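If I may wish for something, please walk me through the protein I am sending here so I can picture the backbone:
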Amino acid sequence: MNKNKKDVKIETKRGSVNQDEWPEPVVRVQSLAERNLSSLPDRYIKPASQRPNTTEDAPVATNIPIIDLEGLFSGEESSSDDVIMARISEACREWGFFQVVNHGVRPELMDAARENWREFFHLPVNAKETYSNSPRTYEGYGSRLGVEKGASLDWSDYYFLHLLPPHLKDFNKWPSFPPTIREVIDEYGRELVKLSGRIMRVLSTNLGLKEDKFQDAFGGENIGACLRVNYYPKCPRPELALGLSSHSDPGGMTILLPDDQVFGLQVRKDDTWITVKPHPHAFIVNIGDQIQILSNSTYKSVEHRVIVNSEKERVSLAFFYNPKSDIPIQPLQELVPTHNPPLYPPMTFDQYRLFIRTQGPRGKSHVESHISPR
């Protein structure tokens, strides 16, 4: 142990905590699920106002938009391109979420990515502890978000790793089992970086900007990319718990590979929770807070959460495409009306994401608290 290393402390409402360790022993949700409990431990029981409530859910047939990208990135202009781009624009403004098919990523790679991670999470808990994470970077095997002692917990375990920038990408921090996991995830990450860059160009163009405007604001090629793989074990009382509490994503854009056999993601639309029905081999694209800020709130980051299941486990892969961590992000000048100041003051992504890393997921409270006073 390095005796010269200084502990880093961060402030919460309950005082300062050591950023290098969790405030209390971490319990793996997988280990709880394997006990075949008939009741739910108190720490996982959500307040009544936060629990899933089927009476508030949208009709079963309701779903987020599904957009076919076929031909959009071929390099050849087509009359269908305008229709596709218009549908993406509407989804970003009205929903903050949409599914994409014919996106250019091989279905075989998508399946291999999900199933490699499923195999990893099926390992005994002790076999995964070597990858245990800390609240400093969250990199590795984890079971909680936020560092508040005694906080309500979500019914999930996860694995978080960096893909970009290159100096943060460390294969030694990636699992070595199953044997193909590192190779598969490396290819998967490269493909999603490409797809994200293409969608970013569409988002810029749809606002009347040069197609590289959003990308340049994120740092050009010097962006950040990371992956959070979520494992939601079977839950004895799913009506009392959440796999992931309500939040909007703090980063730029999220591309989610869902478990298309088990529904779980819910998106908030007009005070109603809509359970997303994943289309086979579709990705779910989610506008994050940084794009809401860049667009001066033309595009919306939207609250979402994850419900759990008493009969089936669920595995999903959330890929995050983020700005370079030390670049101040603020509304683009072209999108700020001359008679009004920008909605948000400048803030780096490093500063911004400290909120969810310390406080955990809390609806839209962070981005709303970031609005400039009028």
